[in-house]
Amino acid sequence: LSGMLALFERLAKQATEQGRAARVVYASSVAVLGESLPPSVDEHTLPRPTMSYGVHKLVGELILADWTRRGKLDGRALRLPGIVARPALSAGHGSAFMSQIFRAAQSGQSYTCPVSPSATVWWMSRRCCVDNLLHAGRMSAEGLHVGRVWTPPVLHLSVQEIV
């Protein structure tokens, strides 16, 4: 949280000096939504994070919306799912297995998946993620809703359907 706040504060200070709010596209997460979701999810779905990661992302959304309302920033937040086919990382973040499935299949290696075949996951490619972030950055501020949060379309598939 402290890094995000420091960045927002620096951008707000620059905005004051330059006379216009800096545009910020915040990579939030579907983790803000928590578990036991309805069949259809959008930006109006009530956030109920069940992990610290989701709480931190929600705090970022709320601060960004507040500072946008106050004219300190021109913020937009996208609730992103796990992004697949990203480079391998040593960090064991929760959605890393999604990319590892593809890397193992591509290299012909065996892979033991940490979730069951019936587990449903929200999938988005790296390219689609970048396109969504760029689109959010290009949107005119006029007419955007107050919350400034969007849940972009994703594939909602089981691991078995992917494999």
UniProtKB/TrEMBL annotation:
Alphabetized UniProt keyword annotations: Carbohydrate metabolism, NADP
Location of the NAD-dependent epimerase/dehydratase domain: 4-112
Name of the protein in its database record: NAD-dependent epimerase/dehydratase domain-containing protein
